[in-house]
Write a structure and sequence with these properties.
It contains ten helices and no strands. The protein has 148 residues and is mainly α. The protein has two domains: 62 residues, 434 Repressor (Amino-terminal Domain); 61 residues, no CATH class. Helix 2 packs across helix 3 and helix 6 packs parallel to helix 8.
Length: 148
């Protein structure tokens, strides 16, 4: 899974390192400045054709632009810092990102909490339930107690 936010940060960094404005980059790529802005804000990522042009322009691999080889590290005090929220949740579920669920659970939105709880309930994700249970709302506790 690609973290759009990290990709956007990387594109902005390379653009600035090359002394280009968003308008300059847009012109070189035959796209709009608004599209460049969307990439840099993590709203989307460039198409494959544009990624190849960016690679040539910045003299880097497209894997580098897409952050495919970047190490997945997180700040335990803010697991979403600089990252797309759904990317983090999916990475936890896929076990690509190992976190101490009971200690970061408070950082999750109600929807994210339910996504994680569903994975715990189905056995796809494991954690120390004795530590997690007191941190759950009464409704979440009931959800986990119900038969599968």
């Amino acid at each position: 899974m690609i973290d759009f936010k990290k990709v956007g940060i990387k594109i902005a960094k390379y653009r600035k390192n090359n002394n280009l404005t968003q308008d300059d980059l847009a012109e070189k790529l035959f796209v709009t400045r608004q599209l460049v802005s969307k990439w840099e804000n993590g709203v989307g990522i460039p198409s494959i054709d544009v990624l190849l042009e960016l690679s040539k322009l910045f003299n880097v691999t497209f894997e580098d632009i897409l952050c495919l080889n970047d190490e997945k590290t997180i700040n335990k005090d803010d697991i979403f810092n600089g990252r797309n929220r759904m990317f983090v949740i999916q990475s936890i579920i896929k076990k690509e990102l190992i976190v101490d669920l009971p200690n970061i659970f408070y950082q999750l939105s109600p929807v994210e909490r339910m996504i994680i709880l569903k994975e715990i309930k189905t056995g796809e994700l494991s954690c120390n339930l004795e530590e997690l249970f007191p941190k759950l709302t009464p409704g979440e506790q009931i959800y986990l107690r119900k038969d599968k």
